[in-house]
Amino acid sequence: MSTTRRQFLSALGASAAAAALWTPSLSTAFAPRASTLDGDPDDPVIAGLLERQRRLWQPGADRAALERMRRLNPEWDFMGRTFGGLAMLAAVRRKPALADALLPPVDRLLAHTLSELRARGKRHFLLPYGWGFRNPDKQSLFVDGELLALVATREELCGDGRFAEDQAWLAERVRQNMDAGPLGHGESYGNECWAFCNAFAAMGLRVDQRTSARWHEPTVARYLANLPIDEGSGMVHSEYTYDGRPQDGPEGSSLFLVATLLDQVDPGRGRHQYELGRDALLRRFLGFGYAREWAPGVKGIMDVDSGPIVPVFEASTAASGLAILATAAFDDRDNLSALLSSLWATAFPTWDDGALHFAASNAVGDAVMLFGLLRAAHDLGGLA
Amino acid sequence: MKRAIFLLLALSINLGPFALAELTGGRSALSALTGGEPGDIVRAMTFVASWVWAVFTSVPALVGALVLGAPR
User: Fold this and answer.
1) Which secondary-structure segment (H or E) carries A91?
2) Global ipTM
3) Are A256 and A288 in contact (CB under 8 A)?
4) Beta strands of chain A (E only): which ranges?
5) Residue A94: which residues within 8 A CB-CB, separation 6 or more?
6) Residues A183/A239, Cβ–Cβ less than 8 Å
7) CB contacts < 8 A (A, B)
8) Which candidate from B27, B36, B71 shows the least CB-CB separation from A68?
9) E strands in A150-275
10) Interval A32-49: pLDDT, tens
């Protein structure tokens, strides 16, 4: 063997040996602090994400980030508001001293969103398709359910009745939409019922029930009785027609949120869904965690809901973000820690004068992660 | 001296592209793809590629140089 070749092979071997040493321990460099895992509002990561949300709704704030996001998908603009609003309310509940800083932005967010909904209608927050609604009032549960959850949660925390009229209006629309459905599930788009939106709506009705004289148990019970379950996996379908025919099978970007909210509406059943999703969709690799959009063997199509899918691993950005929410809610700290390690390593955390966002994410992704870290779902269930 | 030069070379080859992409606003460009700050797709992709390059080549090269010795 020539000297050059021996040197080359030695260098290759040395590199391989070095890689074998450093690769398995790489995730420790990105491991989250205990306070991040605990959901402490004073934790630097959580405080940075909160500051980002707060600034978006300061008077005269530059909302260009939201405008850019709604050009890609108006749903993201809307969901960024609801998840961000619920996260800020959760932070106030955990640390009342934050009320002066965070309640005014929540109120501005709500006033702005409600006025846009009343002035421009639901289409302002929906993608331009699927207008053939079957429900008699042609309403979308996507918009009404999440917004009801936010308004009612604010009322439960503040108790000042500031948005009482809007809350009653939204609760009535949600209840009518769900009651009119053959299964007791409402449409998000024409002939499209989404498990994600129905879970949020049922949760919103429960919070509304706790904060008003209205009674929604028959609606919630019918929703629970007719959850569309995939026979093979036992997991909730992500999308189905108005009369219950499955359209998409179980998907990580839906299931992790559904399981989390379902556990607040029907304790135990949501945990069972989470455990099914965890086993089928959550993966660990060298200490990093990620979630698949589809279970192994299921062929799905990458879309606006799944987000980009990383080849080979089949890791979904949307499913992984929502898995952070679920692992936090179910106190699955090992998986939460692994997911946050991946987030820190690959999502490019970016600081701007105390405010944190992830460059590979967007405003709705940041809001979902904050909602998850603060266990805001527990507030919806009245357990916090 | 040889080892110092090798280390400097390893650092610039492995971390240089990442530093350059970071300095030219690759992170902002990446945000633009997801609805964040303004930017362009080429800078965003360069940023991600340079990060992958930096992570997966720097550490073996540096460990190799420090622990196993620089080449003659």
Assistant:
1) helix A74-94
2) 0.71
3) no
4) 193-194, 239-240, 246-248, 282-285, 288-291, 309-310, 315-316, 349-352, 355-358
5) A39, A40, A41, A374, A384
6) no
7) 68
8) B36
9) 193-194, 239-240, 246-248
10) 999 999 999 999 999 999
Of A7, A19, A72, the CB nearest to B35: A72
The residues, any chain, with a CB within 8 Å of residue A71's CB and separated by 6 or more, are B35
> Which residues on adjacent β-strands are paired with residue A358?
A349
Residue A232 has phi, psi (to 5 degrees) of: -70, -45
Q: Count Cα atoms within 13 angstroms, Cβ side, for A39.
A: 29
Tell me the residue type at A240. Answer: Y
Strand partners, A290: A283
Q: In the numeric block, which tokens belong to residue A58?
A: 């300061």
State pLDDT tens for residues A342-371.
Answer: 999 989 999 999 999 998 888 899 999 999
d(CA A282, CA B3): 44
Q: What is the mean pLDDT of chain A?
A: 92
Which residues of chain B make contact with A65, given a CB cutoff of 8 A? Answer: 35-37
Angstrom distance (rounded) from CA A245 to CA A237: 10
Phi then psi for B28, rounded to 5 degrees?
A: -65, -40
Residue ranges of E strands in A190-287: 193-194, 239-240, 246-248, 282-285
Tokens 């009343």: give the residue.
Answer: A118
- Enumerate residues 6+ apart whose C-beta is below 8 A from A125: A74, A75, A77, A78, A116, A117, A142, A143
Tens-digit pLDDT profile for residues A230-270: 999 999 999 999 999 999 889 999 999 999 999 999 988 99
Q: Which of B27, B32, B35 comes nearest A348 by C-beta?
A: B27
3-state secondary structure at position B40:
coil
